[in-house]
Amino acid sequence: CRAQTDNVLQPxxxxxxxxxxxxxxxxxxxxxxxxxxxxxxxxDGNNSPTFILSCFKIGxxxxxxxxxxxxxxxxxxxTKSVPLTIQ
Length: 87
Prior knowledge:
Layout: E1 2-3, E2 7-9, E3 23-25, E4 28-30, E5 37-42, E6 50-56, E7 71-73, E8 84-86
Antiparallel strand pairs: 1-5, 2-4, 3-8, 5-6, 7-8
């Protein structure tokens, strides 16, 4: 989870789930911006990060086609959270 400025926190760094079980990765952020936008990436081993999706306070984010079926997220500017759900 990355933000354009300020900072983000993933309270639980690692999660384990059985195959086929949905899991939600929490992400909290603190931003001085009035138009928050955050991004989720996936990184396997030493490979470069792969863009999954973006979330915006105003407007619609983007999800890469190969992740649309199983990955989703919604930015909540009130609680300053942008959890990622993987189906």
